[in-house]
Amino acid sequence: MSLLLGSTIAASVLFGGLLQGSVGVGFALVVSPVLALAAPGLLPGTVLILMLPMNAFVAWRERRFVDRIGAAWITLGRCAGALAGLAVLAALSAGSLRAFIGFATILTVGASLMGGAFKLGRTVLLGAGLITGITETATGIGGPPMALAYQHQPGPVLRATLAACFFIGEVVSLALLAATGRLHMEQVAAAAWLLPALGLGVIGTRWLYGRLDGRPLRVAMLVFALLSGIACLV
After folding, report:
1. CB-hemisphere CA count at 13 Å for 153?
2. How far is residue 165's CA from residue 142's CA, in Å, rounded to a whole number?
3. Domain ranges for the chain
């Protein structure tokens, strides 16, 4: 891997960590399209591994705000969706997976922009978990469905609940990927190499968290994700 390519991936991890820690979503939506273009063999394992410490940090920081009942319903749907995500991953070639990521990214950006109010009922939570399980296991991208469900909740509730759900779901997805031989040492090694970049992003949230309104960061995340999704398709 060239220095320029490695630096680009590291920069996306840093920016994604900054977004995830400050807003509650954004890491995979930023990093997965970049990896799909630069190193598709690292998907989805590298993204899922990197998100474990990221979400553990956010969930612990705001643990008193976790919506435990909502998280339980999301996790139930998430576990069922993870099995479907394995089927998607097995059925798609590298090129098709890149296109799938592109379409999924563009659609989730559109949904994030047009989403209206959601009533946090059992059906919405199960549906968000199911879709997240499919897309996150197949591509590493899983935030937008849950973010849409919690978009009208206070920031701490959104961040804490999503982080807790992400962490549990990522453990499930990684276990399934490892059991089916789809988690490779190359992905683990890349995650270890990118940990310092993730750490810088987490450190950056100490200055941004509580001081910067989430809207500018959210807009930046959506614009970047939209451009990345289009690039995947092209």
Report:
1. 21
2. 10
3. 3-233
Burial class (CB in 10 A: 0-12, 13-18, 19+), 181: exposed
pTM: 0.81
Measuring CA to CA, which residue among 29, 22, 31, 40 is closest to residue 197? 31
- Return the closest-CA partner of residue 83 out of 134, 131, 47: 134
Model confidence pLDDT, tens digit, residues 97-110: 667 777 877 877 77
Distance CA 138, CA 165 (A): 17
Q: How many CB atoms lie within 10 A of CB 92?
A: 16
Give which of 178, 139, 194 is closest to 28, Cα–Cα. Answer: 139
pLDDT in tens, 54-94: 999 999 999 999 999 999 999 999 888 888 878 877 777 76
DSSP calls for 138-176: HHS--HHHHHHHTTTS-HHHHHHHHHHHHHHHHHHHHHH
Asked whether the bond before 53 is cis by omega within 30 degrees of 0, the reply is: no
Please give the structure tokens belonging to residue 219.
């807009």
What pLDDT, on the 0 to 100 scale, is given for residue 38?
Answer: 87
Give the three-state DSSP class for 232: helix
**Token representation of residue 55:** 């979400």
